[in-house]
Amino acid sequence: MHVLIETLFRSDVDGNTTNVLIAFNNRNILESVPGFEEVFVPLLTTLSRRRVLSGLDVGFEIAGSVARGERVDEDLIEEAVDIVRKEFVGLGLGMGMGKKPRIPNFQLPPLPPSPLLAELLVFLSQLPPLFDDVGGPESIRDFKPSPESVSKLVSMFYKTKNTLIVKFDEDESIDESDKIERLLKGREVCESEKVVVKGKHLEPVDFGLGLVPDSTNVNVLAIAKVIHEYLEITKISCIA
What we know:
Elements: H1 2-8, E1 17-22, H2 29-32, H3 36-49, H4 52-67, H5 74-90, H6 115-124, H7 127-135, H8 147-157, E2 162-168, H9 177-185, E3 191-197, H10 220-234, E4 238-239
Parallel strand pairs: 1-2, 1-4, 2-3
């Protein structure tokens, strides 16, 4: 995403700004997401047909209002109940033989705002449309633009002068840091440096929970140290 932003949109790049590309990957979706065709496509197709994704949209809107300390819109509550009612009818579970239930006249009291939860919900609310792209009528099966198009765009238009590439030494099957390094070396206006650190690309987000098999305990502090050392050497003050 950062590569595409710098390639297609930014026009205010100067020599005092750098990009940090961590575990760069420009592979197609079948290579990037294990089990995509076998697991995710059938699952998301089923969820899309059963309006589950629409229900998630409404649920995230309601949760967002609560997280921001706002009163929940009554129309949202009615829409949520309507989706649940229709799903129960579709499953043959009754819900009053298809009759629309009377929604109690109540309102959730405003709660103290939770900025962290609100930020998380902003991210989560982007998932249902993405899932619907895969499981819905469009049935998207790959990234856009394609990996080939991204490589061509980078070789022609990448603008940021300074780029730090961080590669994990146990990500050989998916990592393409070497490839992006070659592309940037071909751009006369760009200067790049690649640093290899121990571990896998998922480890910085494991937070010591042991979810990543055979973890070498690489964490965000290790990445921060690499970035700090790079900024010290290059005297760059801004990270994009």
